[in-house]
Design goal:
Blueprint: E1 5-8, H1 12-23, E2 28-31, E3 43-46, E4 51-54, E5 60-61, H2 65-73, E6 80-81, E7 87-92, E8 98-102, H3 124-128, H4 142-146, H5 152-164, H6 173-182, E9 193-196, H7 200-214, E10 218-220, E11 225-231, E12 234-240, E13 245-246, E14 252-255, H8 259-265, E15 275-283, E16 294-298, E17 304-307, E18 312-316, H9 327-342, E19 351-361, H10 365-368, E20 381-383, H11 396-411
Parallel strand pairs: 1-2, 1-14, 2-10, 7-16, 14-20
Antiparallel strand pairs: 3-4, 5-9, 6-9, 7-8, 11-12, 12-13, 15-18, 15-19, 16-17, 17-18
Helix pairs in contact: 1-7, 1-11, 2-11
The protein binds flavin-adenine dinucleotide (FAD).
The site of flavin-adenine dinucleotide has 37 residues, from helix 1, strand 15, strand 19 and helix 11.
Length: 414
Amino acid sequence: MASRVHVIGAGLAGLSAAVAVAESGRPVAVYEAGQAAGGRCRSYFDRELGCRIDNGNHLVLSGNGAVLGYLRRIGAEQTLIGPGEPLFPFLDRRSGQRWVLRLNRGRVPWWVLDPHRRVPGSRWFDYLGLLAVFGARDGASVAEVLGANRLFRPLFAPLAIAALNTEAEHGSAALFASVVKETLLAGGAACLPLYPREGLSESFVDPALAFLAARGAELFFGRRITRLVVESQRVTALGTTGEAIALGADDQMVLAVPPWIAAELLPGMTVPDQFAPILNIHFRVQADAAPAGFVGIIGGVAEWIFAKKEVVSVTISAANRLVDQPAETIAASVWPDVAAALELSGPMPPYRVVKEKRATFAATPAQNRRRPGPRIGVSNLALAGDWTATGLPGTIEGAIRSGETAARLLMNPV
Ligand SMILES: Cc1cc2nc3c(=O)[nH]c(=O)nc-3n(C[C@H](O)[C@H](O)[C@H](O)COP(=O)(O)OP(=O)(O)OC[C@H]3O[C@@H](n4cnc5c(N)ncnc54)[C@H](O)[C@@H]3O)c2cc1C
């Protein structure tokens, strides 16, 4: 029997690794501690709201090549939708002013010359200021590099917080630069906003599980790996709460668990150890958010508001200041932004506040330096996860790239 690849963790890093292995025709087994796959990117039925919700709104851009490649492979590319144009509507809660940032599709960003396509009151050369992130000194924060630009408050800081899940004052300019390079700098065609038509699981998770099952992959849920037995720089067995799983002589493994679990399983490994929360507040109400399906809020409590099929969902990234407040306080402070942005009247509808306290590693320069590469000196093991050294912040794109890289390194060692 061909040697097997064991994948630990069925978040998007683990799933993308398993998909790559299964696609190559090698046997693969996936072990997930939870009862469902998806990790930090999943949907579930909320009894109180009486509908399915996502743990949090996830937005990707058309420049996220690994995400689109993964969806194509599992037959789910058509499950993402969006406005079909690179446009981003905003509302400034202090002034009440609304605008739509409308990029052009090509690489030459002539849109900055058109006052109707850019932030009100901005000048074309303010946008050029963004290029400063590419020359930033090692260890610089986004605010240090862009803080003096007049677009900092209405555009650069909100984009950086969304991309890094870290306040611009602390977020790494270098990590923000990698996102800018693959999206804004690549032109509007790389900046089409995309989000699931149904839910995260329907786009990113269920089609991957079906793809794996169709190729004979073994999927184990409720199977927490508690220990790695490493002998002569090789993993020889996986400890579980029940019987240990012995690895065959040529078996390999991808460890795709969160960093604090990876550090428990591989003591002594340096990993990111600071995290940032994301809050999502789902209101059981239907609304229209034309023309994009979402609105960015400047100067409010809410940051991004998505109008979905059965709920309106609000995202607040780097939500350290709010995360310990009671759910009702959070919902009440966010609802006025939603009502204003989507022109809703009446009392606040039923809501659900989802607090992801360790949504991503804190994308600071210091934490970025703690990210290990995929190979750590254990011959049959590769690491994956959005927190490994992908060069990107904690994103779906980073998670999927890391999973595919881990699978490739194991199957085609150089
Ligand atoms: C609210 C929220 C909003 C977000 N918004 C965006 C966005 O808009 N755009 C974007 O690109 N990214 C976004 N992200 C980030 C994105 O969700 C993550 O980068 C990605 O899902 C991480 O995937 P992963 O596989 O690396 O980790 P995880 O999803 O954490 O997967 C790890 C898996 O390992 C399992 N596991 C843990 N311990 C064990 C064990 N001992 N044995 C077996 N299994 C184990 C866990 O149960 C989990 O399923 C957001 C994240 C959150 C939380």
